[in-house]
Amino acid sequence: MDKFIIQGTKKLHGTVTIGGAKNASLALMPATLLASGNYELSNTPELRDVATMSKLLQTMGVTTERAGTTLKVNTFRVNKFEAPYEHVKKMRASIYVLGPLVARYGKARVSLPGGCAWGPRPVNLHLEGLKKLGASIDMESGYIIAKAKRLKGTRISFSVSSVGATGNIAMAAVLAKGTTQIENAAIEPEITNLLQFLVAMGARIHGIGTTTLEIEGVDALHPANCSTIPDRIEAGTMLVAGAMCGGKIIVDKCDPSHLSAVTSRLIDAGAKLTIGESSITIEAPKKITPVNIVTSVYPGFPTDMQAQWISLMSVAHGPSTVIDTIYTDRFKHVPELVRLGAVIELNDNIASIRGVKKLEGAKVMSTDLRASAALILAGLRAEGETEVLRVYHLDRGYESIEKKLTLLGADIKRVAGEEF
Ligand code: UD1
Question: What is the reported pLDDT for 393?
Fold first, then answer.
């Protein structure tokens, strides 16, 4: 597994270009199972998770081919309806094939995802929703076996707002007989991107962008093309890098309207932001003002930015708290940040951060995607050399992060191949 070696305290300057949203691509790609034909998904990021989703779809008979940032998908020859453990264990979003397979082919065998490095991640809402739509759900040797002749429209009220369950159930309901109402639907931009793609494929969906969706099932969909929205978490991570490292950077090809929770907190932290139509310029504050955050569903502060915010607050001028209400166990980065000199106390899902004058380079271990991003940020700010081991996780969700940061003036090198 690769590692990164960072020589910290370099000021960042210049422009960084944001890629397509991982979490949108991981929903758009399986949606192509809903109708046979050719698709072009533009602005698809080149990420390990996208490659994993491609491989998973290929095991079902789908072909995928990259032309620049466009992913060409052909679903004419889908002949297997299974998501094997080898793929699902690598990437939980593999569960997204469940809804489309049952809706279009009447059957699916999908490995249960299990937990994450940082805690349990249930799929009960996906399964309960499919059951309500009339599918039979059985468990067999760690696999979900879902079957249905044709799904039937129904009313589903999610007890928790779930991005994945909303996407999965919407993909199932578009081909159901009759109308489905989904209450407490997720309104994350990646879900809107998916729902608009489904509409382009011929689905009838009302209430997109709201928490109540009404989906009139249709007999068949047709292929369509789709542009993937920019990755708001990559953009947010780069903005935090700008705030932490001094200097002034332009985060380009992002959608600032998706980032207001992050940009408003950065302004509170003392950064100077100029927000354009598709770019944000950030000038680092001289002193970082402590800002408390509580993660919540969109448009609240994203849990996927929680780790990076803790890094930022580690060098703030005063104490702050970061509370994660979405994933209460997602704090594996905290002990690693402490190795870099951060002072953080963790009580359940509340991180209390003291704010120190400086961080010092050390060897730290990546544990999951966003934790890894937080360690890179801290390494960029730390004095001396930081080694971030096992950056495998980072490649799942950040496109060439070291190249993008190098272009901004950071000193970060990938050391490939050995077992670290
Ligand atoms: C998606 C994102 C992930 C992000 C998360 C929250 C993708 C591929 N991943 O994950 O990056 O961190 O949204 O914004 O888009 N829950 C249940 N039962 C379920 C499903 C979820 O209880 O069946 C709970 C979860 O434990 C969590 C909350 O719902 O507390 C939100 O999870 P959810 O929105 O489903 O996350 P994912 O779709 O897995």
Answer: 87
